[in-house]
Amino acid sequence: MAMDEYLWMVILGFIIAFILAFSVGANDVANSFGTAVGSGVVTLRQACILASIFETTGSVLLGAKVGETIRKGIIDVNLYNETVETLMAGEVSAMVVLYKLVNNCF
Q: PANTHER family recorded for this chain (predicted)?
């Protein structure tokens, strides 16, 4: 199969996306539950459980819509029908840049 040579890019993209999602999600949780835990309304354990449930639910329910917006609203993927590897490399590169931006801001 022709795509076997690009498997490393898919794996690298998955790892970077996972780290990005984890760090952005952790920041969201800190912003939303920080005052509730600090004031004693919920315990840290309760906040972690609630955050896990709602962050996962949100990503499952809204993840496809975000992907559709990127696919149709931001770039025209049909331009890359002949050069799929260029699109893959561009997406992985964009995630690396985003990773650097996110980790330098928090």
A: PHOSPHATE TRANSPORTER, SODIUM-DEPENDENT PHOSPHATE TRANSPORTER 2
Residues 36-57: tens digit of each pLDDT = 999 999 999 999 899 888 888 8
pLDDT in tens, 10-45: 888 888 888 877 777 788 888 888 899 999 999 999
SS (H, E, C) the chain: CHHHHHHHHHHHHHHHHHHHHHHHHHHHHHHHHHHHHHHCCCCHHHHHHHHHHHHHHHHHHHHHHHHHHHHHHHCCHHHHCCCHHHHHHHHHHHHHHHHHHHHHHC
- Residue 29, amino acid: V
